[in-house]
Amino acid sequence: MKKELITRVLPSLWIQVQEHSERANETISKLLDTYLTLLLEEPNWILPFEINRRITSYHLKEKFSKDFPLVRRSVMVDYGLLADVARLAQKKAKDQYMNSSEVNFPSVVRMSLYMLIRSEGYDIKESNFYSDAYFSKNYTLDSEEGFLAKMDVLYHKYKRIPTAREYAQLGGSISLSYIKGKFGSYKQSIDFYREKRSGLLLDNLSIPYNKKITT
Predict the structure, then answer these.
(1) How far is residue 50's CA from residue 96's CA, in Å, rounded to a whole number?
(2) Cα separations (Å) of 163 from 67, 134, 149, 158, 207?
(3) Which of 35, 113, 165, 203 is packed most tightly, with the most Cβ within 10 A?
(4) Are 5 and 106 in contact (CB under 8 A)?
(5) Angle at which helices 28-41 and 105-119 pack, to 10 degrees?
(6) pLDDT tens, 130-164?
(7) Digit-coded pLDDT (tens) for 165-198
(8) Distance CA 140, CA 59 (A)
């Protein structure tokens, strides 16, 4: 059953998708369904980039949004087909990137449109958007700062120190297993957080969104 789905893509990619649709004399919806079917029939492909990546620093989120302004676009999608590809992409994300964060439908549509256009020989515009190396260099923090930034987000959400499960559920590159390996245990990582944020963890108040803190 087809339903409307809203995804956010680079304007340059959407223009190329429209051009390909006109040349192929097929709707974007039809092209997408055909390509999703191909991904299921030939499942040995690899993710072209980490589609479930997250930015934990609010300052870096702002920078990423300015560097790569995305536009909202609507496309009719077979949700059954899309769900099957999303499950496959989820497994690939875990295998390729050790990232268990949710792979959502809009990100699968964006990835599929990118792979479709690339397979048709188009010159990919704004290629840094899809580069894991560029993303890691410009929009991620080092391990300690990344851990502090994630904890700030969770402390703001729960108004308290998060549990290990709550930390793990946020996902992202600074995983719970990584933190345990680095600090020895989750409890020791909490001690580190308390030490670094001692001036802010007062009276159960949430940590303010301070760029000096989260970057």
Answers:
(1) 8
(2) 34, 32, 16, 10, 17
(3) 113
(4) yes
(5) 90
(6) 999 999 888 876 777 788 888 988 988 888 899 99
(7) 999 988 776 888 888 887 889 998 998 898 888 7
(8) 11
